[in-house]
Amino acid sequence: MTTLIRSLSRAGGQSNGPVLDGPAIARSMSSAPGVASASLGNTSEAAIEGQVRISQIGEFLSAAETGRNVRRGFITFEQTAAGGRCNININRQNGPAILELLSPEISDYLNALMAPLATGEELNKTEYLNLVASFYNRTISDEIAYSRIRASIDFPGNITSVRGGTYSGRRAEFDIPLLDLLVAETPLIYEVTWN
How many CA atoms lie within 13 A of 91 on its CB side? Predict the structure, then answer.
């Protein structure tokens, strides 16, 4: 995938920098409504790590719900004196708009990879991997098949339950197969409740 993205960047006239540019992605994410800050750095030329802090959840949710093709409920967030609940629902219908809201750079990469999450196309996992292998090569499709995304999210109170992940204290941890996210053959649904 590193070679693929580097080749695509060169074809687009970009210089030889990191394949995934953490600071550039952070700058674009920082401009999303409700996002207080985004700090992403490169851990290698093709991997990034860091933090995104959403300080105005209402602004973030409002922008997400009014974007093109985003159905209400991509994220629902409820906070009361007794605790709260957060639901996240990612599917092919809301995927392109979610990606555009968060970072046009990420959206561009996923479009180059022909990911159904970005394109809205209806492919199953096997069809998608075969498409990538035929267009690029089997090594890239194999890398997609075995890659994972790990996310840690801190919530306002002590977590009491998580659907789709694990938790400790105020932090929920999610380990998502990249293929599941890129294809979104079935909606990815996560839920966190806290005191």
Answer: 12
Q: What angle do CA 48, 54, 55 make, to 5 degrees?
A: 145
Q: State both tokens at 174.
A: 């999610």
- Number of Cβ atoms within 10 Å of the Cβ of 81: 5
Q: Please name every residue paired with 150 in a beta bridge, in sequence order, or none if there are none.
A: 175
Residue type, 140: I
The CA distance from 25 to 38, in Å, is 9
Q: E strand or H helix at 79, and its extent?
A: strand 75-80
pLDDT single digits (tens) 48-87: 788 888 888 777 766 655 544 444 457 888 999 999 999 9
Give me 164's structure tokens.
Answer: 């789709």
Q: Are 163 and 173 in contact (CB under 8 A)?
A: no
